[in-house]
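[Q] Does anyone have a clean structure-token version of this?
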Amino acid sequence: MAYRYYRRRRNFSYGSSHVSKRTELSRQLGGIDKDIEKIFLSPSPADTIEIFNLYARAHGDSAADYARATYSKWRSGSVKMSGQTAERLIALVPPVLPVSVRFDLIKKLRTSYFRKKTIHVNSSPETWMQDVLKPIQELVAVSSSFSLPEYVVAKAKWLADGDAKAAQHLLAATEQEEAAIRLAYIEEEFRRINALVQNIDTMRKITHALTLPQGEIILLVELPPRTLMQKISDWLR
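[A] Here you go.
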């Protein structure tokens, strides 16, 4: 009895480790492992043959034979794909996919790691326009300085090839272009802020948000605290 109990515990532990590895892999790769699995389980026959041939060259004939034998069970859902198999497919499947599909995978991965910044700017009615220009430049520069973590590229080496790098540069350029389009309307934003500043005497401070693809600038324009004499003067008016 003890021996059977021990085996059940081992099997449970083994299954749990596969589940946790797959969950961790999905977290690290922004969920593109699930997209790649879906593509792998519904490709054209030619793609399937090519992927299995690549699988055999990379991991041996026995591993490829297991994948071929289990393929229909993965498709039906009766067997869940392990983290190890999913990780192998992440390296093998994308290189045989059309450029547009790879682009979408890279975009999803980039989005999962790209962290938008929020910059708070405290200013005055006299200097708010100058004070907000530098943070705008800082936000726009975030796109070009962003890169995927090295451990992600290590799991999917195709992310380091020419096409993938070109896709990442294109995504960065798209973000900067969108920022430039929004900044073309910055005069309108500044007019709104200026209109608010004109009434700052009664409100004492105003807050306004400037939103770009790379993040947000929260501008606080505030008058200095009133002195006692100013408060008396206001009261006597």
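[Q] Thanks! Anything notable?
[A] The chain has two domains: 2-97, 117-236.
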